[in-house]
């Protein structure tokens, strides 16, 4: 499977075998053997290929058809902001405000831990409703 994926990635980027082999610091003959699945790259070369094309190792191995299952950092920051907003909304309630008077002094890690705990409790409650 790696051969077909590697060849498609190389062609989509407009590289010849010679071009790509040079960029990866491998011989063209090795690259050719990888592309026809006659030889597997060693782990260092395998990682170089994934890094060069910005795809996951699972994609190269054929375990997934999504070349970039790694989450986007911007999306992670957006999600983090949403989690913080949820927690702040929760803490606006008078009862919870009394319980968490020193919330403003908490570290970001403590706030994230609390949010994860609350989400887990919510998920359990919803799961139990279905029973």
TrEMBL record:
The keyword Transmembrane does not apply. One of its GO terms (molecular function) is DNA binding. Signal peptide: none annotated. InterPro entries: Cro/C1-type_HTH (IPR001387), Lambda_DNA-bd_dom_sf (IPR010982). SMART domains: HTH_XRE. Keywords: DNA-binding. The keyword Transmembrane helix does not apply. Residues 6-60 form the HTH cro/C1-type domain. This is HTH-type transcriptional regulator ImmR. It comes from Acetobacterium wieringae.
